[in-house]
Amino acid sequence: MAAHSNAELRQLVHQWMELHREEGTRFLQSLVRIPSTQGNEREAQVLIADQLRELELDVDWWEPDGETLEAHPFFYSPRSRFAGSPNVVGVLKGTGGGRSIILNGHVDVVPEGNRDQWRDDPYSGKVEGGKLFGRGATDMKGGNVSLLLAVGALRGLGLKLKGDVIVQSVVEEESGGAGTLAAIVKGYQADAALIPEPTNLRIFPKQQGSMWFRIEVKGRSAHGGTRYEGVSAIEKSIAVVQHIRELEERRNAGISDPLYAHNPIPIPINIGVIQGGNWPSSVPDTVKLEGRMGVAPEERLEEAKEEMLRWMERLREKDSWFEAHPPAVEWFGARWVPGSVDPEHELMQVLARQYREIRQEEPVIEASPWGTDGGLLTQLGGTPCIVFGPGITQVAHYPNEHIVLDHVFEAAEMIALTLIHWCGLNGMEG
Amino acid sequence: MAAHSNAELRQLVHQWMELHREEGTRFLQSLVRIPSTQGNEREAQVLIADQLRELELDVDWWEPDGETLEAHPFFYSPRSRFAGSPNVVGVLKGTGGGRSIILNGHVDVVPEGNRDQWRDDPYSGKVEGGKLFGRGATDMKGGNVSLLLAVGALRGLGLKLKGDVIVQSVVEEESGGAGTLAAIVKGYQADAALIPEPTNLRIFPKQQGSMWFRIEVKGRSAHGGTRYEGVSAIEKSIAVVQHIRELEERRNAGISDPLYAHNPIPIPINIGVIQGGNWPSSVPDTVKLEGRMGVAPEERLEEAKEEMLRWMERLREKDSWFEAHPPAVEWFGARWVPGSVDPEHELMQVLARQYREIRQEEPVIEASPWGTDGGLLTQLGGTPCIVFGPGITQVAHYPNEHIVLDHVFEAAEMIALTLIHWCGLNGMEG
């Protein structure tokens, strides 16, 4: 066993990555070719569990128990049965005396949407111009492969760490985080965590949470020819939309965190769905609005809900119609817990250092505009979590989703070195 | 055979109505209990055809031929097949030498809407406080029963007319008039026509036409967490709704017809349906608006269309987004041809006289705020048509729709006497 300088370790890790580019690319291709949408994650998890076993990690494989989870206050999912949707966790035990880390990535992908908008099959895994294409390439199978490559490099180079490395491949991130919740409930915890969601290699110590809401706006029906005898729920819903815009302005005016310096609306309230009326010649008596309310990293979901409800009550000050017909607000479907880690947290420092040394430039450190399972790990799991990954934020959930392969390997190198410095190097075999 | 004075005839008709109140009410109840929404008119038509046969009219029963109608420039319907949706016409031949009349009523009703807003079942036919409740009671089964009672009184009293009375129970009025069009195409014509749509016993020599439009408003999708990277089609649709409000103001400012003196918006533009987006966490890229554009009695449908299209082009002056993404306007589904009959037309005078004599007050003569099949009869069918009926304009298309039973019988008396004076009395049997 010999001591190694940082420069030597960087060199070793980089060489290992160069030698495993083809293998890593093929593995990502295999993962992307499995359409692991909600309920169809099993096949992809088999691939990942096999890989973890090959790296000689202790593998834990289980289907989350919907009945137990449903009773949990942080459980949000459109489903309560997870048969065929297993979580996979691989543990690389350290030699002791070091800090542990959870490396978490989700295996579920959002549906491909309209196939006509894809140039190739949505699950092609096609490689072209240094990019790999397909649903999930960026969000977030590319990031997951970075994690596996990082652990692979440690194993391949015979580097033994002091702290434990816990690799989690979870289901259900895209629908509210029940997979990560199940891992927390099972007892997985560490001194810190990293999730390689698509951040364009930016580092996010904080992340926006979000909740879905539904608002029913009332009108009063009438024949369209005497529309002045009715009250249009469409016109009333315009007032509600504008009222929500004002709430968004107020909430964002209160945010001064420098991590949001380049974000025009740190915690947006998006109205994604509008639906009302059923007959062109009738004044519509109901309009339904559905949307997503962003929640600040340090805010609690319940506080944000309260603020929305109080704000909606003030509609009556603008229009007495709402006095007798207050819009009904309902919280439904998915919710993502926000998360906040001190930007000076030591895992942040360690990662930023590797970034600087490898890229020879300052990393961008920001607050993420969307939630990840990191909020659950930080708030509930007692494991401060940061987000950093190779995927491209702008193409997540889009047709022709892709990832730059160079970034997958670059991130893998940074993560491997971060593991070494965070968990501590015990020595090198052989 | 004996000559009868007007006063005697009024007395005879009134007595006959008094004797047939229970029977007439029961018949209306039976009609209202049949939910004869579009495509489901058959059962109600069976009831009416049976009644016409009982009154010894020659009954014509046919399902309109969609293929033939589709080629007709006045055909507007969301469907092209009318299987199960028959028209019924009953002809009471006159003895000759008199003026003929078409009595036209539609049997289709609009859907009941949100059942929670109904105190009773929407098709209860419940009688309470002199009112009969249920979808279609006012629009326009009550009026249809007035027609049948008027003819029934003539038959029951043995009064023989010179001119023909043609009773038409048509389908599809609520969706563009294909039922009445089919009757016109089949050759039915008369010297004048009366439609007992719900006018609150006001007399309408003129009527608003209308057309359905659909507007597709474009946005650009993005993730809700970075909604500022997209363009919300919901926000753009608000601009379109407000732009349409301005067009409505301009069009109505130009209307000075004294028949509209008491109407706050003579030719309204109603937006009845809004629908956009499909995911709470996404910025919606499309919103569809559907509505009804009122057309002035003397205006041509094509003129109104042109004005709307020109106006929509001006959206770009308010927001450059619409320059590159002009909302697409489509005319679809139902259209009602406007109609205008001289307020001094002799049928107007005959009816107004009966009204005065029975009610001992001046009738209200106005322009109707909505279209009826009368526009088709007047403009296409060569049969000047006026509108007058017992239903309550304000409750048509509403929850808890109802009609005042007294008005059904009062209208029936006025119509019976109008028939006598318009068609001419040949004599009395027995």
TrEMBL record, chains A, B:
The keyword Disulfide bond does not apply. Pfam families: M20_dimer, Peptidase_M20. Residues 207-316 form the Peptidase M20 dimerisation domain. Its cofactor is Co(2+); Zn(2+). Keywords: Cobalt, Hydrolase, Metal-binding, Zinc. It comes from the Bacteria. The keyword Nucleus does not apply. SUPFAM superfamilies: Bacterial exopeptidase dimerisation domain (SSF55031), Zn-dependent exopeptidases (SSF53187). Belongs to the peptidase M20A family. This is Peptidase. It comes from Paenibacillus gyeongsangnamensis. The lineage of its organism: Bacteria, Bacillati, Bacillota, Bacilli, Bacillales.
